[in-house]
């Protein structure tokens, strides 16, 4: 199971997440989230990571100029709302956020089920199941995941990856090494 640690706000936490085995690091930019960092800090965090670690920019913006700024970071992927238009040939993967009854765009590389947006609200299992069943692209689950519930989510749903933010924090935007390690270890266990 692939694991994204999201809401990273410091180089230190990014390197710890990477060291503990995270496949992807998510940085919130151009957003009203309390975990949003300036583009300059996102650039610094991405520069510290190994080349094989996915670098994902997460935003809820609807501004095309913000999108251009985000794309200037050259992330592996951008996680964006369903309605944000992306020019063809941007050279990065597009992850669209599914969070409600709106139709899910198939013009993307993956769908992220995220009704929580970093608030720790546990995902709706029936909604997640519907998205997994209907999606023609890989599905990533976010929303209230913790070391206590991620194993059940992985067993219950056919997911491409899981995405955690508040579930591995000691305070808003500051990650806890022990929680990250435990979360990743659970995700790596063979399915039973």
From TrEMBL:
<dbReference type="InterPro" id="IPR011060">
    <property type="entry name" value="RibuloseP-bd_barrel"/>
</dbReference>
<dbReference type="InterPro" id="IPR044643">
    <property type="entry name" value="TrpF_fam"/>
</dbReference>
<keyword id="KW-0413">Isomerase</keyword>
<feature type="domain" description="N-(5'phosphoribosyl) anthranilate isomerase (PRAI)">
    <location>
        <begin position="3"/>
        <end position="185"/>
    </location>
</feature>
<keyword id="KW-0028">Amino-acid biosynthesis</keyword>
<keyword id="KW-0822">Tryptophan biosynthesis</keyword>
<comment type="similarity">
    <text>Belongs to the TrpF family.</text>
</comment>
<dbReference type="InterPro" id="IPR013785">
    <property type="entry name" value="Aldolase_TIM"/>
</dbReference>
<dbReference type="GO" id="GO:0000162">
    <property type="term" value="P:L-tryptophan biosynthetic process"/>
</dbReference>
<dbReference type="GO" id="GO:0004640">
    <property type="term" value="F:phosphoribosylanthranilate isomerase activity"/>
</dbReference>
<dbReference type="InterPro" id="IPR001240">
    <property type="entry name" value="PRAI_dom"/>
</dbReference>
<protein>
    <recommendedName>
        <fullName>N-(5'-phosphoribosyl)anthranilate isomerase</fullName>
        <ecNumber>5.3.1.24</ecNumber>
    </recommendedName>
</protein>
<dbReference type="Pfam" id="PF00697">
    <property type="entry name" value="PRAI"/>
</dbReference>
<keyword id="KW-0057">Aromatic amino acid biosynthesis</keyword>
<comment type="pathway">
    <text>Amino-acid biosynthesis; L-tryptophan biosynthesis; L-tryptophan from chorismate: step 3/5.</text>
</comment>
């Amino acid at each position: 199971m692939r694991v994204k640690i999201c809401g990273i706000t410091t180089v230190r936490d990014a390197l710890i997440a990477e060291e503990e085995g995270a496949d992807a690091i998510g940085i919130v930019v151009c957003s009203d989230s309390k975990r949003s960092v300036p583009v300059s800090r996102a650039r610094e965090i991405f520069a510290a990571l190994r080349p094989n670690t996915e670098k994902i920019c997460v935003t809820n913006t609807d501004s095309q100029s913000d999108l251009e700024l985000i794309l200037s970071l050259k992330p592996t992927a951008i996680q964006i709302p369903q309605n944000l238009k992306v020019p063809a040939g941007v050279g990065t993967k597009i992850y669209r956020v599914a969070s409600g009854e709106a139709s899910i765009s198939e013009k993307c590389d993956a769908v992220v089920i995220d009704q929580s947006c970093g608030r720790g609200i546990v995902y709706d299992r029936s909604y997640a199941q519907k998205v997994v069943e209907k999606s023609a692209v890989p599905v990533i689950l976010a929303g209230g995941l913790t070391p206590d519930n991620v194993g059940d989510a992985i067993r219950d749903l056919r997911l491409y990856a899981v995405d955690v933010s508040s579930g591995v924090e000691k305070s808003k935007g500051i990650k806890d090494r022990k929680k990250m390690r435990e979360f990743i270890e659970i995700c790596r266990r063979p399915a039973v």
